[in-house]
Model the fold of this input.
Amino acid sequence: MHVAEEIRAEAVGLIDHHALGLWQPTAADRRAAVALFRFLETGLPLSGEQIRSVLVHAEPPADASEGLLSLLRATAQLLDETTAADGPAERDAVDHVCLLLDALALTRPTGD
Done:
């Protein structure tokens, strides 16, 4: 399967699981999503460097869900491939990752 299709499918799966309550993001997941959401709010496109920066500074990254971490790492790699990242399938995959980040960043944590 093409990398962009895998990223899109994983993002869609996490969005669905989150919406259905089958996946409860950890506090580290939410912190990473909020940090990346702040980049998105600038209106500039997300970059691989921004994703890696957030992952390095996550508190602690070990507490984040492995599915989200692997999705963000794959997205960073995709964004680093500038010629490939401009295709329609790649833009669609990144758009779905951004939708997931929006959903996580705007959701109140459980217990609040």
